[in-house]
Amino acid sequence: MMKLNAKKTGMALCALAALTVACMTGCEGSVSGEIELGGGNDNGTGSGNTPDTADGIDYTNQPNGTLTIRNNTKKDMVLFEGETPTKDTILGGVRAGSSRAFDVSGKNDFAVGGWMIIKGMAASEYAAKKDKLTTAKVEYSTMATYHAGEYYEATINAAYTGDYCIKVSNNGKIGIELHKDSFNGEKIAYLSPYKSNQYIYFDDNKSIRLYPVYVYYSTRNHTVSTLSGDFFESRTVVPASVTESYMQTYSFPADPNTTWSQIMENISFPTAYITVTNGVEEGAYFKIGSAQYVAQNGQDAVGGVPVTFEVVSTKDGEEKQITLALYNGNVSVPVLTAGGGIPTIQNGYDYSVSLTKVALGNTPAILADPNSYKAVISAGTPRDIKSEIETLPQQ
User: How far apart (Å, rounded) are the C-alpha atoms in residues 7 and 77?
Assistant: First the structure.
C-alpha cells in the first residue's frame, strides 16, 4: 500500500512540479520529492517473519544475509544489482533510517568469492519512473564483495543524495571509487570502467575535492585492491542544482585523452593490506595508536571470520604500533613479529595477523591479562599491479 506523507492535493502538485523540472534539468531524474512507501510492519530490521513489501519491492530483512546496507537517508531506497537499473535487476529495498541484510548466496561464485555493482534510487523515484527506469535519478552507487562465511557492509549517506549534482567520467579500464579530500578519504561513489557522464548527487552546492581510487576485486587472492595516482588526478568539483540546463563533466584522470598505459605509469598502492584472524571468543578492534580502523568489508571489529584492513604507510615502510583491543578496549594486545618486534609495514604488501589465547606458565589464561593473548604478524608479501590487472575480467 502506498502512503502519502502530505495531503493528496499538495503532493499531486509537487509531483507535477517535479516532472516539469525533470524535463528541463541537466541532471537525470526529478527533484527529490519524498513519497514514503509504507505497508510493512518489519521496517526492514526485524526477524523477517513478517513480510514487508510495497509497490512490488521487498524490504524484508534476511537475517542470514551476508550483505548489509545501512540507509542513513530520510527516504526509503530501492537497490539494483549491476550497472543499469531494471525491474529484472532489483535487489530489494531498505527503509529510511534502518539497515537490511541481503542474502546473495545464490551467486554462482559465492563459494569462492566475487563482487557486484549496486545502484540505488529513492522509492518515490522508482514509483514515478518504474516503467522507464533509464530516466530515473540514481543517487547511490557502490562496489560490494561477497564470499561464503564473510560479510560486507555499506552505507547510503544522506550527504551524497539530494538536489545538487555533478557529472563524472572514468577514463580507465578498471573501476574507480571517488573519495573525499584524500585518496584515503570517505567514499562518495563508484564508477564502472569507461563509464561516461554518471551523475553524482549532493545535499548542498559546496565545492568538494574528489580523489580517484582505482579499485578491483582480485580473483587471485579474493580480496579488494586499491590503486591511487598522483595529486593532479584529483579534482575540485562544484555541484550545481538539478534545475541547471548545463552540467560540466569532470573526467578522471583529468585529461580525457590519457591512455591506459599512461595511467598505469602513475598509479601505486596507497595502503598495505592486513588480514586479521581472531581465534579468541571476543570481538577485537584493530587500532594503530588511538585510531580505530574499519575493515574493507565495512565491519568495525574482527569476529570469527578473517577481515582485511587497509593501513596507510610508505613504499619503503614504516614501523606501526598495532594493537587488537578486546573487552571494549580494557585489554590491548600488541601485534608483534614472530621475534617480538614492532612490525614495519609497506604499502602494496599483504600481511596476516593471528590472534590466539595462551596459557600463563602452568595456569590457564586469565581473560583480563594482556599476556594471556598473542597477536603475531607475518612477513609481508608484495602485490604486483600489472600482473593483477592483466588477469582481471572486464568489470
Answer: 22
pLDDT digits (tens, 9 = 90+) for 341-389: 999 999 999 999 999 998 766 666 688 888 999 999 998 999 887 777 7
Residues 237 and 251: beta-carbon distance below 8 Å: no
Model pTM greater than 0.85?
Answer: no
Span 143-174, pLDDT tens digits: 999 999 889 999 999 999 999 999 999 988 88
For the chain, report the end-to-end CA distance as a whole number of angstroms.
38
What is the DSSP secondary structure assignment for residue 245, as one 8-state letter?
S
Higher pLDDT, 263 or 8: 263
392 pLDDT band, cuts 50/70/90, is low
Whether the CB-CB separation of 228 and 270 falls below 8 Å is answered with yes
Sign of CA dihedral 272, 277, 280, 283: positive
Instruction: Indicate the pairing of strand 208-218 with strand 235-237.
Output: antiparallel
| Residue 390 DSSP label | H
Strands 176-180 and 164-170 come out as unpaired
Which residue has cell 586499491? 226
C-alpha cell at 236: 575540485
Strand, coil or helix: 330: coil
| CA dist., res. 179 & res. 165, Å (int) | 16
> How far is Cα 124 from Cα 22, in angstroms, rounded to an integer?
14
Q: Which of 384, 375, 354 is nearest to 227 (CA)?
A: 384
C-alpha pair distances (Å), 212 with each of 175, 197, 260, 293, 336: 10, 15, 14, 21, 33
